[in-house]
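[retry 2/3] Pirin N-terminal domain-containing protein: previous attempt timed out, resubmitting with same input.
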Amino acid sequence: MTITKITAKIHDVGGIPIARLLPNRAHRTIGAWCFLDHAGPTHFAEQEDGMQVGAHPHTNLQTFTWMLEGEVLHQDSLGNRQTIRPKQVNLMTAGTGNNHGISHTEQTPEGIKTLHAVQLWIALPMGKTIAPDFRHYPEMPEWSDNGADFVLVNGSFAGRTAPTEQHSPLLGLDIRTRQAQTLEIPAQAGWEYGVLVFKGEVEIDGQTLVQDELENLLAPPPKPYTSAPKQAATSCCWAANPCRTRR
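[retry 2/3] Pirin N-terminal domain-containing protein: success.
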């Protein structure tokens, strides 16, 4: 198993410090996952407006927002207006081709003083005609096993399938542990994996990760990788089959 550790670069987006993991000079994508930002956790003072990202366009990709704490109001040029809350997903599809695209804004609603979220971009397959779209997913599959809590936000895992639309083979899995323990996460042959730590410390096959560090793993023929949180920790596993991704 080939392993690469990636440390975030900090950027300012709408007045909020953002930890950017992808693209990175060491590794630009994980399959169709082509962009990864971790925002927060951030707490706003009473007089602060929170995140205020003005209108900006996208094309030939999807934006995938996974909310951990707080709320964000999404508005776009298709006329959608949707507040996203913890454990919910917003998926905006900008469409493919020169005639497609979406402009949108992201703002902290009035009275909300916390922000913690992950936003990823998904490269769309250019050989398909895909129309612009926006979907909100208020509930995702959740379960507990071996002392850990799981939320499946994309793809299929452990006999469950997330409702989020896919145009490429992908996986998104939120993992929260309550104490130091060892977990084995099944890896699919040929898939590429990334594990991002939101909180605490996690050891992946002998390498220690802390907040805003991403471990990139390229899986050999089926073999689980071992995740060993050294304390109560929160992490997320992102994966894709690069052999079946065409961008």
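[retry 2/3] Pirin N-terminal domain-containing protein: The first strand starts at residue 2 and ends at 7.
[retry 2/3] clearing retry counter.
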